Structures are given as C-alpha cells and as structure tokens.
Amino acid sequence: MNRIFILFAFVFLLSGTASAQYQGYTQEGEVGITAGVGTYFGDLNNRADLKRLKPSLGIFFRKQFGNYIGVRLSGNYTRLGYSDQLSNVDFQKQRNLSFNTDIYEVALKGDFNFFRFDPMDLRYQFTPYVSLGIGVFTYDPFAYLGGEKYFLRPLGTEGQNVGFNGKKPYGTTAISIPFGVGVKYALSQKMNLSFEVSHRFTNTDYIDDVSGQYAGIANFTPNSPAALLQDRSYEIDPNKPLGVQGFQRGFEKQKDQFITAQVGLSFNISSYRCPTAN
User: Fold this and answer.
1) End-to-end CA distance of the chain, in Å?
2) Angle (CA) 256 150 156, round 5°
C-alpha cells in the first residue's frame, strides 16, 4: 500500500514539474509565410466579381504584447488583373479595356485576438482575429497588344502626357489601408496555421490605368501603341468607337481597391520565464 502511495506521489510530482515548465514558456512573436489569391475592385471590376483570381504570396513578423494584441510587419506580392470582357454590362464589353499589374506591398498592422491565444497552453490554441494597418505598395499596369506587352503609365492613355484636362502622369507608388479578418490555430507549441482575408483601401484610381475621360484620338500619334490602347472599342465594333474626347472612360471619384485571401504557416518565437508560486 505504501509503495502505491509513493508511486502516485512521484507521478503527481513529475506532472506538477512538467506543468510548471510548460507554463513557463511565453510566446514572444511569430515569423511566417503566406500564400493564396488576390483580386481587384475598380473601374473594370465595379461589381466585386471574383472571376479573375491571381496568386498572392507574403512573409511576416509579428511581435506579441500579451495573448490578445500583436503588431505585424508584412511584405506581400500580388498579381492583379481584369478585363472588360468578363463584365455583363454592354458598355464595358464595348469599351474592351484590360490590364495586369504586379503589386509589391509593405505594411504595418495591429492584430487583435478575440480569444486568448497561447500556443504553449492546450486550452488556448484557437482564436479569430482582426487586423488594421497602413501600407505602401508599388504598381505598374500593363496590357498586351498584338502579342506584345506594353506598360500603360508611360503611354498616358488618358492624355496625361499632353496635359489633357490638367492631368499629369500618375506615380507607381500608393498608400494602402489593409483591414483583415482571420482565424488562427496552434498546430503545436512551435507552429501555427492561419487563414486571413484582407481588404485594401487605396489612395489611387490608376491600379487599372482607368480613371476619367477619353482624351480623344487627336491627342495621340496615329496608330501608335498609346492611340491603340487608350480606346480599344474598335476591336469590338470599328463603326462605334467610344473614345470621343471628353466621353466617360472610368469613374474617377472612386479609388481602386484589392483583396487577398491567404493561408499562413508561422513559427513561434518563445522565451522561458520562471513560473510564480501561485
């Protein structure tokens, strides 16, 4: 009987010691990678359709301040693109514009966990979360004509190169405001799995190279790439060109936006702190 009591006491002691060591580790942060898809909303995709999803990749570092709040520095690459031919609106099909662009973004975000999240504790290994931050990204829209790739910004497709309506060439850098929602699960004490959807509001209307009015064919060299790409309605119906000077080409009062959906895998950075007697 005494041997059984001693055995139980020994097991209890080991269990308590292991628990104390287990609880002594604290998550300080994470480093991780993400992969998924992205799409854009703007003058070509003004109905938030998800018809043209393109790849999106990222890396991040998150610093934790307790079990609920973290600050994340991230870098993301996303390919965006769309075509008027994907629309169900007759005007857009006749307009016949299209674009692609590579987005390179660096962002600083604050993350808030709805539940306590502690990969070191089996009771707190899952949480939904929200994030909000600010970022800067580069973009440079391009299109294909006759099988050749042309970057659209240098062409001034809305008359920027001749100062039409006082317009000047737009830049290749813009600001983003990323707002994200996600869920996170601790696969182990060292590794986490996450899924996040992040919507970016931006301060540019030229991710797709479309914003205001047609400058008119007279402002372009005849048959030049700029002339042929500023109004492609002739490819649909040569008898009904849309590119009359001053005719609406886009909706300049609404800025372009883009969204990503990514799965993430991260590795915890932890430190050991001696647990208190309590």
Assistant:
1) 32
2) 60
Q: Read off the pLDDT band of 234 (50, 70, 90).
A: very high
Q: Do strands 25-41 and 257-272 pair parallel, antiparallel, or not at all (unpaired)?
A: antiparallel
| Distance, CA of 172 to CA of 249 (rounded, Å) | 21
pLDDT at 271: 80
Let me know if 63 is exposed, middle or buried by CB neighbors in 10 A (0-12, 13-18, 19+): middle
The whole-model pTM stands at 0.87
Tokens of 60: 């991040």
- The radius of gyration of the chain's CA atoms, rounded to the nearest angstrom, is 27
Q: How far is CA 173 from CA 104, 177, 225, in A?
A: 10, 14, 24
**pLDDT value of position 27:** 81
Q: At 162, which helix (H) or strand (E)?
A: none
The region, left, alpha or beta by phi > 0 then psi within -120 to 50, assigned to residue 276 is beta
Check: CB of residue 174 under 8 Å from CB of residue 227: no
Residue 137 bridge partners (DSSP): 105, 174
Position of tokens 């696969």?
187
- pLDDT-derived band at 178, boundaries 50, 70, 90: very high
- CA–CA separation, 82 and 44 (whole Å): 7
Kind and range of the H or E run holding 221: none
The model's pLDDT over 87-134, given as tens digits with 9 standing for 90+, comes to 999 999 999 999 999 999 999 999 999 999 999 889 999 999 999 999
